[in-house]
Amino acid sequence: MSSRPPPADSHEQILAVVRRIPYGRVASYGQVADRAGLPRRARLVGHVLRCAPAASALPWHRVVNAQGRISLAPGSDAYREQRERLEGEGVVFIRGRIDLARYGWQTSLDPLLWAEP
DNA sequence: GCCCTGACGTGAA
DNA sequence: ATTCACGCCAGGG
């Protein structure tokens, strides 16, 4: 058996994880890779997303880098589209950054976990 | 085949 | 906060 999943499977795994990111939340490339069973393959996630058609139903915009910043050239069309999609879901940008403690997927400050009665 | 680049991450200085 | 180095590896030239 292979110690590593074949490329095709890796792509499917990554896409599957991205599809699971909830509305209004964001996940980092590393987090997606991790949950896809591909630790330290953050760059592969970026590559897969780049190859993925923008017209697909994939919520690619919910994937940002570990600093809560959009990893696309600031000012580019792609950058604007990702930011607009996220803001449309209620995600707030502060000086170009997203507070991962609040909008990150499955973080300790998840409002659902700390919700008061 | 080799070399460089890149939608990244982490840790150290 | 910023810079540097290293790990990882698919594609393109």
Description of the structure:
- This protein has 5 helices and 4 strands, in the order αβααβαββα.
- It has helices spanning 7-19, 29-35, 42-51, 77-88, 100-103; strands at 27-28, 63-64, 93-94, 97-98.
- The strands form 2 sheets. The chain has a two-stranded parallel sheet with strand order 1-2.
- α2 (29-35) crosses α3.
- The chain is globular and about 45 Å long.
- 26% of the residues are buried.
Strand order of the largest sheet: 1-2
Low-confidence stretches: 113-117
Report the helical percentage: 25-40%
* Rg calc: 15 Å
Query: Structural class of the helices, strands and pairings?
Result: mainly alpha
SSE run: HEHHEHEEH
The DSSP helix count reads 5
Instruction: Report how far the terminal alpha carbons are from each other.
Output: 50 Å
Instruction: Return the average pLDDT rounded to an integer.
Output: 87
Sketch the major β-sheet.
2 strands, parallel
Number of strands: 4
